[in-house]
Amino acid sequence: MFMNMIKLDKIKNNYPVILLFILTFAIYLGTLMPGIGYSGDVAKFQFTGKILGIPHTPGYPAYTLISHLFYLIPAGSPAYRINLMSAFFASLTAVFLFFVILRLTRNKPVSFISALLFSVSRTFWSQAVVAEVYTLNAFFITAVVLYLLIWDEKKDIKYFFLACFTFAMSFGHHLSMVLLVPAVVIFILVSNYRVLLKPVNLLICAGFFVLAALQYSYVFIRTYNPSAYVEMWVYNFEDFMWWITGGQFKGRMFSYTFGEFFLDRIPYYILKLKNQFHVIGMVIGLAGACLMIRDRLKQVSLLMLIYFGNLFFSLNYGVGDVYVFFIPSYIMFAVFIAAGLDAAYRKLAAVKNLDKRLREGVFIALSLLLFFRVYAGNYPVVNQSDNVWTDKFVDIILDNVESNSVILTPGYDWGQFYLYKLIGEQKRKGDDIKAHWYWHPSVIHEAYPSFALKPSINRAAEKNFKESFANRDATIRSPFMFNKNIPVNKSLYFHRGSRRIMDRAGFSSKKAISIFKYGHKTVVYKMIPEGGKDAMKCVYLHAPDEELKPSRRVRKRIDSFHRKGCIKIDFNRENRIFLKGGWSRNEISDGNFPYCWANDIESVISIPVKEPGDYEMELKAHSIDYKGAPEQWIKIYVNGSYVSKVTVSGVWDIYTVEIPAKYWREGRNAVLFRYNYLASPVEVFDQGDPRDISVAFAYLKLK
User: What is the rounded CA–CA span in Å between residue 358 and residue 352?
Assistant: First the structure.
């Protein structure tokens, strides 16, 4: 289709297109994640296509079937191949965006540099190097826009049908494409409404959408002939409608008030837009949008309706990773940037007594400066080429647990990492090892009555926990992971963060595996029956300490900390590499800044110090506060030595502690926070959050 597009558009010189594809694909290959480690969703997409399973809503049947083909590529692990699929469609998106801009500006240099600039925008680039659904979605968007623009100019009906077919098939991938419906319909009406008055045209388009709808027969097929991973089974029309409309996420759609939308969400988007294209790119894009409104109102109406339709939904969508839903708006903004660059190019061309080659050279040089500024700013954030720690860590655990065992993981991400290894790579095939992240002490007690439990276990909390997932369990029926029954007669292992729940339930345990990483010990525990003896000795794994050295990305971030004159670690996804145990997922506060809850009685953060000295530690934090809550304090230990105690309130505040030089050492320092209590929102607030949490942290600063 790509080569046909070149031929149909009668572009004789294809070298800019070929160069653009090769250059962007090389950038993505150089920063591609080699295995697992980015998120649980990424790990899920890395194995569901291989086994033709069903991931979370809305299911992504087109993505699943296409990814199944990429497993045939004889390169790397299954995870690497699906990461490669994201890079491939990201480069195709850049090529189609080049044609979109060329159609509007007739300026090859501008088209090339603008498409290249979008290719290294932070969010899109970050999704091009891991197994995610967003680069394929971006490809569909640019293809639909391109075919509509060609049809509008040439009035050739085949491009109209090509646009309708592509648009229809895109619904089998990501239902956010429905946001394009107003833009597409209005553009067709404005361009040539008569095309819709012919019954044969409507019949052909209806056939396209029927064909597209048939993609969803996949979920019924896999329900009655399931694979090893079916996250949601669909037995009837009610199940299907809940599933296809993103039922488990409906409560987060349009979840912001009018004031929050304007005071919080719009500033949040502006900040994200700056991260994509730099301030200079933002200014050029705004100028370009104004010029397009003046000169190309019909074409810009299509782009503007897509842009604002995407923002209207995304800014009202209350999920932590909502930033990826902004990608369609970034595509449109890249076109606006192109319009601004084209205007600058034409102004430069109007300068008299300036040689054409010199003029083009000056323009290209200035454009490349913008490109390299964006590239340099985004590369350290998106580079995943040395993200290998999680992959090796999971391998080590699976190599050392017994056969016929269950690994209880501390959360969704780790659960998916293990499932990828067990299902996607079939590691320890035949040894009957399972991994669960959705569990409760009462479930363990029912499956293993021989294990001791404290009489004081909170049965009300258990009931609230079960009821909070009642609606979810009505649809999520996967026997592999989401049921509440832990298989009996197996060895049980608790991975890291599960220790707190294990202690509350009174399970007796011993250390089974200890892994030393970056100066901090990670432990996997083996559960022991009441009165029983553990024959398995503690296995200390020192070898990974050599294999799992700090990545290049970590070393660069350490250098950047010290260049700024202080060490500041924000508790966001980018700095997750410094959180070494006892931390929950990353979240966004009402004030629009990232934070992270401690979810154990102790948590550890690894702080790189180049030159030991007297430091003032500054923390922005707050505790989980509820009626009757005890005083919450944090005891701070540096490299095993007690330093100080800080009392924390239930609102965001800043706390400072003086830490003398004697506690620090050159290199990595393990800073341990010990808390007075933990509480679960499902217990104290009667909310559906089953986590045990203590203190939320926004940032840590040494100065």
Answer: 12
Quote the CA–CA distance of 172 and 174 in Å, as a whole number. Answer: 6
How much of the chain, in percent, has pLDDT values that exceed 70?
79
Closest of 577, 557, 564, 606 to residue 703, by C-alpha? 564
Q: Residue 107: is its pLDDT beyond 50?
A: yes
Cα separation, 292 vs 153, whole angstroms = 16
pLDDT digits (tens, 9 = 90+) for 454-480: 544 555 655 655 555 444 444 444 434
Say how far apart CA 188 and CA 208 lie, in whole Å.
Answer: 17
Residues 201 and 279 in one domain: yes
- Nearest residue to 527 via CA among 550, 556, 505, 549: 505
Indicate whether 343 and 477 sit together in one domain: no
Contact by Cβ (8 Å): 122, 382: yes
Whether 353 and 495 map to the same domain: the answer is no
- What the block records as the tokens of 685 is 């607030």
Domain count, the chain: 3
Same structural domain for residues 559 and 542? Answer: no
Residue that is written with structure tokens 């040539």 in the block: 192
Q: What would the mean pLDDT of 245-251 be, rounded to a whole number?
A: 65
Q: 15 pLDDT exceeds 70?
A: yes
Q: How far apart are CA 376 and CA 89, in angstroms?
A: 23
Q: What is the mean pLDDT of residues 16-43?
A: 92
DSSP conformational letter for 58? T
Residue type, 584: S
Q: What is the mean pLDDT of the chain?
A: 81
Is the separation of the CB atoms in 391 and 298 below 8 Å? no
The answer to whether residues 497 and 601 touch, using CB atoms and an 8 Å cutoff, is no
Q: Which residues, 6+ apart, have CB-to-CB distance to 627 below 8 Å? A: none
R_g of the chain, CA atoms, integer Å: 27
Residue 274 and residue 213 share a domain: yes
H helices present in 476-534, as ranges: 499-505
Q: Cα separation of 582 and 584, whole Å?
A: 7
Q: For helices 327-349 and 297-314, what crossing angle results, to 10°?
A: 150
Q: State which residues form the domain around 576.
A: 552-702
Mean pLDDT on 50-74:
88
Percentage of the chain beyond pLDDT 90 is: 31
Q: Model pTM greater than 0.70?
A: yes
Domain match, 44 and 122 both: yes
- Give the three-state DSSP class for 552: helix
Within this chain, do residues 537 and 661 fall inside the same structural domain, yes or no?
no
Look-up of token digits 């339930």: 505
Among candidate residues 494, 527, 547, the one where a domain is terminated? 547
Token code pair at residue 50: 């291989």
